[in-house]
């Protein structure tokens, strides 16, 4: 029986224009897993206020990071999938949860090619109901409508996998070898409403574990690093500490140089390139900081490729 790997990432607007961003935000923020408010309350607000008001400003942010081949999230995800296909010697398909390269087309195409054993790897190292669970829901929704279903293995998370910890720690080590160490390393993860954590989402705990394991692998002391959360959305309380607040405070505490790494992002995207590498640098320097560096995501590096191979092969063994 033929095997294949399906990598799934979040998805991104088709173009850095208000129109394309509006369409993307409607689909993404219209997902109940992302915003679990009553539809009758949320959809009019999303369609009537949030998407129209937010789109022009977010499109401008995308324009600042757009690459010749497209949105960084799509470009790096595609390159990673292509390299994995070459190295692993089996079909690897990339799909997106929202927007172009939809999951349904990808799954149907693999089945048409005779694939009967499918390893699904959402490109989210830490599980959350807003990301991983939404991919699972969509996958099973697609399979539920098919006459024949493949065996499938679903990688719910890899937050403490030694190959993941080593890939991230190794890339930080490489960076420091070339450019020297900072006074403090910030490990910044995408935020989530605090309420999700209270309701049992394991995301926060997994971020804490990943951060601790990465710091341990680097041999860092407690004062050398800090876990923070970025990309807050809306007025509710999100996971703390907020990255922006820490960056404002650190210079007052005598910390002049920081490096920021985002281990929860498999590839660079709007939230790392525009927010962390762009806006937050200005915030730190304005607050009196001296040197601010962003350490890139794993992207299509050999380290990321090795990690993906390990994850793909482990799952295949179980299915064999
Ligand atoms: C309720 C809102 C949001 C939740 C919850 C959320 C969780 C979440 N998101 C990621 C990863 C990414 N998010 C990205 C962009 C993005 N996220 C939100 C909102 C929520 N995210 C919005 C509205 C946007 C779009 C930009 C904006 O309008 O500010 C991206 C980048 C996409 C890209 O095209 O580059 C990623 C990646 C995780 C991991 C997560 C929960 C853990
Ligand atoms: Fe997000
Ligand atoms: Fe953002």
Q: What's the shape?
A: globular
Q: Please write the CATH class name of the largest domain.
A: Alpha Beta
Topology order in helix (H) and strand (E) letters: EHHHEHEHEHEHHEHEHEH
Total strands: 8
Computed structural class:
alpha/beta
Radius of gyration: 20 Å
CATH architecture of the largest domain: 3-Layer(aba) Sandwich
- What is the helix fraction of residues, given as a range? 40-55%
The overall average pLDDT, rounded, is 97
Description:
It comes from Methylomarinovum tepidoasis. It is a single chain. Helix content is 50%, strand content 15%. It has 320 residues and is an alpha/beta fold. It has two domains: 2-157 and 303-319, Rossmann fold, CATH 3.40.50.1400; 162-295, Rossmann fold, CATH 3.40.50.1400. The chain has a four-stranded parallel β-sheet with strand order 2-1-3-4, sandwiched between helices. Strands 6-5-7-8 form a four-stranded parallel β-sheet, sandwiched between helices. Strand 3 (115-122), helix 5 and strand 4 (151-154) form a beta-alpha-beta unit. The chain binds the ligand C=CC1=C(C)c2cc3[nH]c(cc4nc(cc5[nH]c(cc1n2)c(C)c5CCC(=O)O)C(CCC(=O)O)=C4C)c(C)c3C=C and fe (ii) ion (FE2) (2 copies). One fe (ii) ion binds at residues 231, 271, 275.
């Amino acid at each position: 029986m033929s095997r294949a790997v399906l990598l799934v990432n979040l998805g991104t607007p088709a173009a850095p224009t208000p129109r394309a961003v509006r369409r993307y935000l409607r689909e993404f923020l219209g997902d109940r897993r992302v915003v679990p408010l009553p539809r009758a309350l949320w959809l009019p607000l999303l369609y009537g206020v949030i998407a129209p008001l937010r789109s022009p400003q977010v499109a401008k942010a995308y324009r600042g990071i757009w690459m010749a081949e497209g949105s960084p999230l799509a470009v790096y995800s595609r390159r990673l999938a292509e390299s994995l296909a070459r190295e692993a010697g089996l079909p690897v398909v990339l799909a997106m949860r929202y927007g172009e390269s939809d999951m349904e087309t990808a799954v149907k195409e693999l089945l048409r090619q005779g694939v009967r054993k499918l390893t699904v790897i959402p490109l989210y190292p830490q599980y959350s109901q807003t990301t991983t669970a939404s991919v699972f829901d969509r996958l099973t929704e697609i399979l539920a409508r098919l006459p024949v279903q493949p065996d499938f293995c679903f990688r719910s998370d890899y937050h403490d996998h030694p190959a993941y910890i080593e890939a991230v720690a190794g890339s930080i080590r490489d960076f420091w070898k070339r450019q020297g160490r900072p006074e403090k390393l910030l490990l910044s993860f995408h935020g989530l409403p605090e309420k999700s954590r209270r309701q049992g989402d394991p995301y926060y705990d997994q971020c804490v574990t990943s951060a601790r394991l990465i710091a341990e692998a680097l041999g860092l002391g407690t004062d050398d690093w800090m876990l923070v959360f970025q990309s807050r959305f809306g007025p509710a309380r999100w996971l703390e500490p907020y990255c922006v607040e820490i960056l404002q405070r650190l210079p007052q505490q005598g910390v002049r140089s920081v490096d920021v790494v985002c281990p929860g992002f498999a590839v660079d995207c709007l939230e790392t390139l525009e927010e962390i590498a762009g806006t937050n640098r200005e915030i730190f320097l304005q607050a009196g900081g001296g040197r601010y560096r962003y350490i890139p995501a794993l992207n299509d590096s050999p380290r990321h490729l090795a990690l993906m191979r390990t994850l793909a092969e482990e799952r295949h063994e179980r299915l064999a």
